[in-house]
Structures are given as C-alpha cells and as structure tokens.
C-alpha cells in the first residue's frame, strides 16, 4: 500500500499522515459498557469525602423565636377584615 501511495503522490515523502485512531470510523454512540472497556469512562468506587467546616455554623435564630413568629402569623391569618 505504501508503494502505491508513494507512486501516486508527488508530495507524499514530505508529509505522511498519521493513521486514524482505533474506532474512529464507527458511526453512532457506543454503549456504556463499550465506553468503560475502552477507558473513556473511569468509575470511582470510593465517593469523594465531603469537606468539613473548620468552625461550625453559628445559630442566628433560636427555634423558640421561630415558634413565636408562626403563632403571630396564624393570629393574623384568622383575623376577619
């Protein structure tokens, strides 16, 4: 094949194109298992650990204050206009 290419092109000796990658000419989407087999998808069995805060959150509002607000709102909703 290389002899035939060299004989039909004058500039073939200046630049020889690289071979196409494996599975380049396949049309369509490969299945998930095929992607895993080819190394396109890498599965991590260990999930990433969640980052921990250095300092805990400060409690800005107490639950007691929340209860009082809900009682007041209920009173306003029950009032007739």
TL;DR of this structure?
With 81 residues, this protein is mainly alpha-helical. It has helices spanning 2-8, 32-38, 63-78.
Can you walk me through this structure?
This protein has 81 residues and is mostly helical. It has a domain at 1-42. It is built from 3 helices and no strands. It has helices at 2-8, 32-38, 63-78. The relative contact order is 0.05. The mean pLDDT is 74.
Q: Pick out the low-confidence regions.
A: none
SS strand fraction: under 5%
Number-wise, the strands total 0
Radius of gyration: 34 Å
What summary fits the major beta sheet? none
Count of DSSP-assigned helices: 3
Structural class: mainly alpha
Coarse morphology: rod-shaped
Cα separation of the termini: 94 Å
pLDDT averaged residue by residue: 74
The helix content is 25-40%
Order of helices and strands: HHH
Tell me the layout of helices and strands.
Blueprint: H1 2-8, H2 32-38, H3 63-78
Pfam family, one: SAE2
Domain DNA endonuclease activator Ctp1 C-terminal: 6-33
Protein name: DNA endonuclease activator Ctp1 C-terminal domain-containing protein
Keywords:
single chain, 81 residues, 3 helices
